[in-house]
Structure formats: structure tokens, C-alpha cells
């Protein structure tokens, strides 16, 4: 995340950086799998590459449809034994007991299965850097929520959203806590944000690569960031899309000036239509 923020500050970020930010903890890229295999081949004992390979395995026998796995559309999902991923994760955790990625993944699995003791034990192994990782605050909140400690859960989830304001998973859990606290207006606000996040995820799953993301999607993402209270990435994306749309409009208008007046009216109308951007891609 820090690399994305640094690139944005220098205004050198690629367009797809915003998609990576939104899908920070869930995106699986088939291109990344290929690259990681190359790097691992050159350094077979490297902790980062070994962990990345394990975490990029599908959750079940075929790639999950709930997790964006961007890559060539014709590429089939991997077929592996049902126990392939859990076995590798456990093996690597024994080898690298303080790896932040492995701990987050396994603790999340434990909590989903109702294993509070297992999750709590793993969270206690987390390095100091976990304090700046939104996932660990979300997991801490989930432990408190499971123990009906709703005020503590609320504080932990709020801290997670300070670190990563567009994390719809945390929003969803926070909405559950706020319902217990009978804060219905906040439940409604969070639920609407989660629904918008799910809509964006459905659209992004249809892309063959993040480089193919279209301006209307990015503009909707910018609005979502703003409504989540994201104060850096959202405004930067709005700035970038405003510049891109203005440049596109100027390009079209300049091209229209060059259209000879003797061209048939049908062609002139087509060019004129292109000069007007659809309403849904206008920045509000």
C-alpha cells in the first residue's frame, strides 16, 4: 500500500494502481503467479516467494469465483488436491512462524471456523509491523465480536478502516457490531457502502487484466473512495480522471475541427456524438 501512496504523491502511479488499492487483500493476478514462479526459480529458499506461491493457490479444487483472478480470459483455473493449500500454509507457518501474510491468512481461516483460541494464538505471534496492517485490526475486532465485546470490536474495526478505508470486509463486520449496538443509521450507511463495493468487484472480475479498467469504473471507484472517507487515493483518482477526461474531450474537439464540411451529415453527426461524454463518466 505504501508503494501505491508514494507513487500517487509523485503523480507517477499507473492507472491500475487504484484497482490494486481497492482489492488490496483479495486480488489474485495470474501474471503475478507467473512472475513469482520465475523469481522463486532463481531463489528457491526465499521466504517471500515461497509464501506468495502458497497464498496464490486456489482455495479449493478450482479458482474461487468470489476472488478476482485477473489474467488471460482463456486460461483455466488450476486443479489441485483439496488439501494442497492448507497443507502448504501449515508447513510454511512452522518454518516462518512470524510471517505476517501467513498469520493473517490462517487467523482468518480459524475465525471463520469458530476457532477463537487458534486465532488468538496466531495473532499473538504477529510482529510489531502488524500494528499498521488493517487486516490484524479487523481480525482483532472479529475476536472481540465473537466474545460479544462489541465496544472493543467497534474500536478495532474503526482502527482497521483508518488504515484501509475501502475495506468492505471490515465494513461488513462493523455493520454487524453496530446492529448489536442499535446504531441503525450507521448500519444503513455501512451496508450501502458494502453493496457498492460488491458491485465494483463484480465489474472488476470481468476484466482480463487490471490494465483494461475503463474510465467509468475508475470514476465510480473514486466516488466510492471519497464516500468511505479515503483522503489520499480517492482525491488523487478524481484528479487523474478529471485530467484524462479533459484531455479526451480536447482531443475529440480538435479532431472535429479537422472534419471537412463536405463530409456527409451522417459522418458529421457520428463525430459530434463522440465529442459529448456520457453522463455516467462525468465527475461530480
Structural write-up:
The chain has 284 residues and is an all-alpha fold. It has one domain: Serine Threonine Protein Phosphatase 5, Tetratricopeptide repeat, CATH 1.25.40. It is 63% helix and 1% strand. It has a two-stranded parallel sheet with strand order 1-2. The chain starts with a helix and ends in a 10-residue tail after the last helix. 26% of the residues are buried. Mean pLDDT is 81; it is low at 61-67, 71-80 and 250-284.
Key terms:
284 residues; Serine Threonine Protein Phosphatase 5, Tetratricopeptide repeat; mainly alpha; 2 strands
Please write out the topology.
Blueprint: H1 2-9, H2 17-22, E1 28-29, H3 30-42, H4 47-55, E2 69-70, H5 84-95, H6 100-112, H7 116-124, H8 134-146, H9 150-163, H10 168-180, H11 184-205, H12 215-227, H13 233-257, H14 265-274
Parallel strand pairs: 1-2
Helix pairs in contact: 3-4, 4-5, 6-7, 6-8, 7-8, 8-9, 9-10, 10-11, 11-12, 12-13
Summarize the structure.
The chain has helices at about 1-10, 15-20, 30-40, 45-55, 85-95, 100-110, 115-125, 135-145, 150-165, 170-180, 185-205, 215-225, 235-255, 265-275; strands at about 30, 70. By secondary structure, it is an all-alpha fold.
* Overall CATH class: Mainly Alpha
Secondary-structure element series:
HHEHHEHHHHHHHHHH
Q: Please name the fourth-level CATH homologous superfamily.
A: Tetratricopeptide repeat domain
Q: Overall pLDDT, averaged?
A: 81
Low-confidence regions: 61-67, 71-80, 250-284
Number of domains: 1
**Helical percentage:** 55-70%
CATH topology assignment: Serine Threonine Protein Phosphatase 5, Tetratricopeptide repeat
Number of helices: 14
Structural class: mainly alpha
Adjacency order of strands in the biggest sheet: 1-2
Name the shape in a single word: globular
| Fraction in beta strands | under 5%
> What does the main sheet amount to?
2 strands, parallel
Radius of gyration: 22 Å
CATH architecture classification name: Alpha Horseshoe
Count of β-strands: 2
Q: Give the termini separation.
A: 26 Å
Amino acid at each position: 500500500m505504501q508503494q501505491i501512496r508514494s507513487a500517487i504523491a509523485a503523480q507517477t502511479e499507473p492507472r491500475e494502481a487504484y484497482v490494486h488499492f481497492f482489492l488490496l487483500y483479495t486480488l489474485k493476478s495470474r501474471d503475478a503467479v507467473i512472475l513469482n514462479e520465475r523469481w522463486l526459480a532463481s531463489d528457491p529458499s526465499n521466504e517471500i516467494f515461497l509464501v506468495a506461491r502458497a497464498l496464490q493457490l486456489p482455495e479449493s479444487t478450482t479458482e474461487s469465483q468470489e476472488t478476482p483472478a485477473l489474467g488471460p480470459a482463456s486460461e483455466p483455473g488450476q486443479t489441485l488436491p483439496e488439501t494442497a493449500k492448507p497443507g502448504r500454509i501449515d508447513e510454511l507457518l512452522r518454518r516462518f512462524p512470524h510471517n505476517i501474510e501467513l498469520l493473517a491468512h490462517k487467523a482468518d481461516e480459524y475465525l471463520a471456523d469458530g476457532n477463537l483460541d487458534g486465532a488468538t494464538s496466531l495473532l499473538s505471534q504477529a510482529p510489531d509491523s502488524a500494528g499498521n496492517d488493517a487486516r490484524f485490526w479487523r481480525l482483532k475486532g472479529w475476536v472481540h465480536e465473537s466474545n460479544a465485546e462489541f465496544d472493543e470490536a467497534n474500536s478495532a474495526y474503526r482502527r482497521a478502516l483508518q488504515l484501509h478505508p475501502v475495506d468492505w470486509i471490515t465494513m461488513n463486520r462493523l455493520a454487524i457490531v453496530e446492529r448489536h449496538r442499535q446504531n441503525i443509521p450507521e448500519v444503513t450507511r455501512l451496508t450501502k457502502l458494502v453493496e457498492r463495493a460488491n458491485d465494483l468487484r463484480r465489474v472488476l472480475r470481468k476484466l482480463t487484466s487490471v490494465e483494461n479498467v475503463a474510465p467509468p469504473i475508475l470514476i465510480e471507484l473514486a466516488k466510492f473512495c471519497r464516500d468511505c472517507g479515503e483522503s489520499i487515493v480517492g482525491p488523487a483518482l478524481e484528479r487523474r480522471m478529471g485530467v484524462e477526461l479533459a484531455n479526451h474531450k480536447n482531443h475529440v474537439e480538435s479532431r472535429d475541427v479537422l472534419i471537412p464540411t463536405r463530409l456527409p451529415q451522417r459522418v458529421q453527426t457520428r463525430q459530434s456524438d463522440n465529442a459529448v461524454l456520457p453522463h455516467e463518466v462525468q465527475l461530480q
